[in-house]
């Protein structure tokens, strides 16, 4: 009414312009929704109409940290492929890993990573996570030297040093817990402890010096990294709306912007300090610089890569260890089996990278932990090639029409695939036995091809071997030295939002040193 009165006050040409504007404001969304539902190239893909019509349900859930859980329910309802946004598809079949994430060959095409998911560029040049094509191939070739089996053997002493330090800190806390349980520093939050250990170890490998977290309990780095990941999740959501995409950087709160700058500035300074020193220590840069070919890596790329390693190689391993600890405490029979295996070693010195490679149950526990509580739960988004592609036997177009980005995004979300009864029997239960060489009959038909916690293809995690060694060593050390139980046995700790990564709560435990 008020609008009609306003329109009545103005003369005819202006009136016409106002009506046109009104039509545009109301008509454009109606046009987009009609197009998305009735004419879109993905209109026949199963899924709820509301999610297909607009971005709102997908990104409302992403911003609340509930998208992955909702998408799991949608797969239960609609099957192995679901249209989860106007131009986005989610798959859970193991074949989708090969089709979407596989290599470029004579018969297959490597899909490009959807850059919107990684947030804006910090370094002026992409590191490993954001690079594409030839630059990605070159960086991968150069950086592989730091992650080879030979490199890992050389790094063993360095990695063990941090596992030892962790046990030292836990011993002191366990003593306090016994003598004065009410002191705040008698609390043992295993999420924090694992973060400190993996951050210190990764900083030593990336910068030639630790952050000193295990010594000083300085948490700013860890909390910065988690808020950085959260900010990337927000920026990702904003960038999906083309009208807002260009202003993403400016929409960030000042504190987050400053935090990101500080983090990157620190990476630059530490790489510079490290490069000023001639050393034979087997950290990443010794191995990379010594072995690089003439194309090598630029200084700017080194800054970006160091920042990638600190983001990708720390929180992930700490998440795996935290998840494994909670599930083991929640399933005492599994904890007992693991204790029997690890405590059969004659001494802690016998726990080596090599000896732990042969521990069947420890390996099964870590695999099952990554299945039920995947460290990268939402996975990596990819763009369907423009000319379209066949995924799981069905052809999907790569052009999504005149609205939004025009590209079709697709992914396999590890949490969704791993918790689906389509792939796994008893999917929500923690059953390491499904990963031992001769699994119980009911788990023999599990579709293990759907389980790819480190991704697949040309962008598979470069740190996978390092992560396995690190996780085996740290968990074995903790189990060898301590009996662990939860402070609050009723709290379902894994009930946490996912903002790209798990927003982990503190995991408070009681520790008592093993009596031998
Ligand atoms: C449990 C531990 C870990 C898990 C579950 C994990 C998982 C993953 C996954 C799923 C990807 C692929 C993402 C995509 O396809 O878009 C990835 C990539 C990557 N990861 Fe890991 N990661 C772990 C530990 C590490 C460690 C220790 C490092 C060491 C530096 C690392 C460095 C990287 C890097 C640099 C990439 C990007 C690779 C590329 O684009 O070529 N990750 N990781």
From TrEMBL:
Which GO-annotated molecular functions does the record name?
heme binding; iron ion binding; monooxygenase activity; oxidoreductase activity, acting on paired donors, with incorporation or reduction of molecular oxygen
Q: Which Pfam families match?
A: p450
Supply the InterPro entries for this chain. Cyt_P450, Cyt_P450_CS, Cyt_P450_E_grp-I, Cyt_P450_sf, Cytochrome_P450_monoxygenase
Which key words tag this protein in UniProt? Heme, Iron, Membrane, Metal-binding, Monooxygenase, Oxidoreductase, Transmembrane, Transmembrane helix
Source organism superkingdom? Eukaryota
**What cofactor does this protein call for?**
heme
**Is Transmembrane found in the keyword set?**
yes
The membrane-spanning stretches of this chain are 16-39
* UniProt cross-references to SUPFAM superfamilies, sorted A to Z: Cytochrome P450
Keyword Chaperone belongs to the record:
no
Positions annotated to bind heme: 461
- Coiled-coil region(s) at which residues? none
Query: Which family does this protein fall into?
Result: Belongs to the cytochrome P450 family.
Q: What is this protein called?
A: Cytochrome P450 oxidoreductase
Instruction: Report the source organism.
Output: Cladophialophora psammophila CBS 110553
